[in-house]
Amino acid sequence: MAEKSQKKSPLSDVKGHIGALSTGFKYLIDPHRITLDYPAEVMELPSNYRGFFRLIDEKCIGCSLCEIVCPSNAIVMTQLPVAQPAQDATRPPPKFKKRPLVDWGMCIFCYFCVDVCPTEAFEPSQVHDISYFKESDYRPTFDAFLKLPESPFKGSKKVVPKVDEKKGIRYEEKVNKN
Amino acid sequence: MMDFLNLIPVTWLPLLESVFYALVFPGFIAILLLAFFIIWFERKAAARVQMRYGPLWVSKRTGGIAQLLADMIRFSFQEFIVPEGADLIPFVFLPGFLLAFSVLPTLFIPIGPYYSHIFPAGYTLLLSVAFTLVIPVYLVVLGWAADNKFSFIGALREAYLLISYEVPFILAIASAFLLYGTLNLVEVVTIQERSLPGIILNPVAALVFLIAVIRATGRGPYDIVEADSELVFGPYVEYSSLMFGFVMGVPYIELYSYSLLFSVLFLGGWAPITGVGFLGGLIIPGIVTFVKAVIVMCALVFLRGVYPRYKLDKAVRAGWSWVFYLALIALLLSAFMSRVL
Amino acid sequence: MTQEIKTIPFTYEALSQLKMSEGVLELQIGPAHAGSGHMRIVAWVEGDTVVKVDPDIGFVHRGVEKLSEDRIYIKAIPMVERPSLVDTVNANLGYVMALERLLGIEPPPRAQYIRVITAEISRIMSHLYGIAIYGIFMGSSTVFMWAMADREPFIDLLQELTGARITYSHIIPGGVRWDLPKDFAENAEIALKYLENRTKDYEKVWINNPVVVARSMGVGKLSAEGAIRLGVVGPNLRASGVKYDIRKEEPYAAYEEFDFEVPTFKEGDSYSRLLQRVEEIKQSIHIIRQALKRLPDGKIIYEDYYKRMSPLMKKIYDEKGRVKFTLMLTSLSPPKGEAVSRVEGGRGEMFYYLVSDGGKAPYRFRVVTPSFRNLPFFTHVMPGHKLADIPVIYGRIDYFPPRPIDDGLFEPDPRYLVAPS
Questions:
Q1: Domain ranges of chain B
Q2: Chain C interface includes B6 (CB < 8 A)
Q3: Which helix (H) or strand (E) holds B96?
Q4: Which of A45, B187, B228, C161 could form a disulfide with A49 if both were Cys (CB 3.0 to 4.6 A apart)?
C-alpha cells in the first residue's frame, strides 16, 4: 500500500505542538518508571536462565564433547589424578581422569556444553552477576568448579517483573515461601 | 530586624540595601541556590517523562537534590586542560565574564515597590535588555578561542541565530514599551496591578518573548548551538573541571534573568502584594516575583523532554518569517491596547 | 560554486587525487562521537552544506568469515549472531537455513512456527531500536528511552523461552532448542497489547511532532529507481516505493502460510522511513498473533536426530521440552556443494553463502549484511544537504556497523567536485 505523508498545514502544526506537550505533561504527572533499584532490589530470573554452572563429578565420564562443542574454546579438559579404585580383574585401574575446566572470562553462556553432555553432568544456576578481582580468578580450580556459585546479592529484595497492558513493566515483590 | 536597621547610620542604608540586593536576593546567592534547584528539576522532569528516576543516589531521602553539589565537588578535583592551539586569555577568562554578565540584568529588574529607594529606576527596562544582549557576542568569541572545528561551527551557529532572533525579541520589548508607555519597570507593575496582567493584554508579545528566551538560552528545541549529536557540545567542548561547571550553569542563569524580566513585564510582578519598608516593600513582594520566575523557568526546561532539536537553516528561516510576523502583530496589538488602557 | 565537472569513477585512486575547493572544512565525525555509532564519517562541509561524505567502516571487524573456516559448523551459530546484536534471530536463522540446505534436511512444522514467532519478535525489537537511535540523533532522549524501554517486554518473553536476553542461539540445524513454555501465548498477547497502546503515545510525541516533521520531511529523498540502482535493501527500499520483501518473494520457514501485507511509501524521505518501520511493527504483531493461534503440535527437532537420542536425552525432551545435542551435531559433515540463503532481517536482506568440501568446517562462508548494502546510499544522498542532516539520514538508515569491505563503482553526485588539475 502506497501512502502519501501529507504536507501538514500550519493548523496541524499547532495541534501537533499541543499534542506533544500534553502527552509529556501526562507522563510528568504519572510516570511509568521501569528502573530497578539495583542492587537493593534484584530481579528474580526464570528457572531456565543461562547463568554460571557447576560440574557433578560422579556423572562426568570425561568424554570431552563439551570441549569439542564450545564455540569460544572456554572449556579445557584437564587430567586429574584418581584415587585408586577397587581392582577390576580384566583391566588395570585408571590412574588419571579427564574433567572439564571452564574459563569464565571466555564463556559466552550459550549452554552448548550443557546440552551436549550425554550424562547431564552440568548443573545450571541463574546466578549471572559475579565479578572477580584478579584475572586469574576467572579460571577456578576444580574444587571451586564443583560448587554452585553464590549470588552476591543474597540479602536483596527479590522482585518479579510483570507486564501490564496499560502501565508497562511493574515489579511485584516475590514472597519468599521459606 | 527593624531594631538592627535602626542602629545603622541612615546614610549607609541605601548602600547596604544595594549590596543585599546584588549579593543575596535576588542576586548572587539566590542565583546559586536557584541553579542547584533548576538543574535538578530539569533532570528530574526529563526523567519522569522518560520512564526513569533521574538523580537519586546522592541523597536518596530528598530525591537526589544534592546532585549538583556532588558534581561540583567532582569537577573541582579534575585537571583543567587548555588545548595547545587555544587562545589563552579568552579561553580561560571568558567563562567568568559570561557568568558576570549573565547576572548583571537582575540588578536592574525590580522585585518590589521599595526598589526605587535602592537603584534609580528610570530606565530599568532598557538597561536590563541591553545587558542581556551582550552575552551571545562573548559566546562567539568563546567558540573561536578553543581551536576546535566543532566549537568553531558552534560559534558560527550562535552568530546566525543571534542575528535572526534578536529582532523579534527587541520588537516584543518594544511592544511591551508601547503597551505600558513607560520604561520604568516599577510603573509597569503598577499599571498591571490596576488592570490585567500583561500576558492577557498582549499574549502574542508574551509568546514571542518566550520563543526568543528559549533560543537565547538554548533550551528545548533550540539547543542547536550545543547540539549533542552533531557537534559534541559546541563551543564548550574543550572545557573540563570547574570551567565546565561554569559554562554549563551560565545558560540557566541567563534563563533566570530572562524569566525575572518576563514575570515583571507580563505576569504582573508582585501584583497582589504591596507594602512599604524593607521587609514589606522588598522581601515579601520579592518572593512572589521570584516564585513566578521559577515557575516560568520550570515550564521552559520541561521542553527538553518533549522536543528534539531544530535544524539551523529552518530555525533561522523561522526567525525571519513567522516569528517576525508574530512580533509585528504584537506591535500592532500593543498599539491598539494602549489606546484602551 | 558550480563549476564544470567531469564525472569520475568512484574508485580509491581517482578520489585520492581529488582536490576540494577553498573554504571546505574537513570534519572527522569520528568513532568517539555522540552521533556516529562505531564508525568514522569524514565529512567535507562548505558553510553548512555537506559537499562529500566518506564513511570509514571496519572498526568492529571481527573476522567471522575467516574464523568459521577453522571451526566445526555448529560453533558458528553464536558467532553469526553477534554482528547484528539487535536482530539476532534472523541472523541465526539465515545461517542455519543455509546449513540445512547443504545437509538436505528440513525441520518439522512446529519448529518452523516457533522460528517465525521468534524472528518476528526480533524484528519488532530491531525496529524499536531504529526508532530509538533516530530519536537520540535528533536530540530527543525521550523517544530513545521509551523505545528501549518498550523492548523490555519482548526481551522478557524470549528470556522465558530461551534463558538469555539478546543472543539466544535458539535455532540449530534440524529445529529449535527449546519448546514454548505453557504461558507463552498469554504473555505474548499482553506484550503485544502493551505495544499497541504505546503506539498512540508515540504518535503524539514523536510522529506528529512538528519539529520531527520539519526536520525529516523532504530530507534524504531517494526515488525508486535510485534505490534499485544503489542496491538498497530492507525498509529503506520499501519506503522508496519498491515492494520487495523476501518473505513474499522467496518464502522461507512457514511464511507462506501467513497472511500479511508489505507496506510501501511513495516519497522515500526520512519521514517515510520512520512511518515504514511503524507500519512494519504492526504487520509483525499481526503475524505473531496468527502463528500463536495456529501453532501445530509435534516435535521441535528433525525426526532423524530425535531417533539418535539416548533414552536419557529423550526423557529430558519429553519432560522439559529441551533438545539435547546428539553426537551428530558436533560432527556435521555435509556433502560437497554450496548453498545460499536469504533472510529478511529487521534492517534488510541478509545473505549467506556456504561452501562445503565434505569436511567438518566450511570451506568458505560469506555473509553480506544489510547495513553494508545501505552504505552507498548514504554516500550518494548526502551532498547538498546540511550538516545537521547527517545524523538524521544516517540514523534513519538504521545502521549497524558491517564487516568486510566491498568495492562499488557508481557515478557520484557531480555538483561540488572540482576536476583534478
A1: 2-340
A2: no
A3: helix B88-103
A4: A45
How many angstroms away from the CA of C187 is the closest CA of chain B?
A: 22
What is the topology classification, in CATH, of domain A53-85+93-145?
Alpha-Beta Plaits (3.30.70)
CA distance C195 to A112: 33
The CA-CA-CA angle for residues B84, B88, B91, to 5°, reads 100
Q: Does A111 touch chain C (CB under 8 A)?
A: yes
User: Per this entry, what is the length of chain C?
Assistant: 421
Q: Where are the domains of chain A?
A: 53-85+93-145
As a whole number of angstroms, the distance between CA A145 and CA A127 comes to 14
Residue C365 backbone dihedrals phi, psi, to 5 degrees: -135, 120
Per-residue pLDDT tens digits for C234-286 = 888 898 889 999 999 999 988 999 999 999 998 888 888 889 999 999 999 99
Report CA torsion sign: C388, C389, C395, C400.
negative
Predicted model pTM? 0.89
Of C75, C209, C316, the CB nearest to A16: C209
Q: Which of C68, C75, C150, C155 to mutate to test the interface with A (most CBs of A within 10 A)?
A: C75
Calculate the alpha carbon distances from A85 to A89, A95, C256 in Å: 12, 9, 61
Question: Looking only at Cα atoms, what is the longest distance across chain C?
Answer: 79
C307 inside domain: yes
- pLDDT at position A9 is 66
Tell me if chain A has a CB within 8 Å of the CB of C163. yes
φ and ψ at residue A6, rounded to 5 degrees: -70, 155
Which residue range forms the structural domain that includes residue C144?
Answer: 64-372
pLDDT at C419 over 60: no
Indicate whether C58 belongs to any domain: no
Interatomic CA distance for residues C134 and C219, integer angstroms: 14
Assess if residue C2 is contained within a domain.
no
On whether ipTM exceeds 0.90, the answer is: no
Shortest distance between the Cα of C398 and any Cα of chain A, in A, equals 20
CB C235 within 8 A of CB C398: yes
- Establish if B308 touches chain C: CB-CB under 8 angstroms: yes
Q: Tell me whether strands C25-29 and C40-46 are parallel, antiparallel or unpaired.
A: antiparallel
CATH number of the structural domain spanning residue C78: 1.10.645.10
A34 and B305: CB-CB below 8 Å? no
3-state secondary structure of A27: helix
Q: What is the mean pLDDT of residues A85-98?
A: 72
Q: Look at residue C86 and tell me if it is in a domain.
A: yes
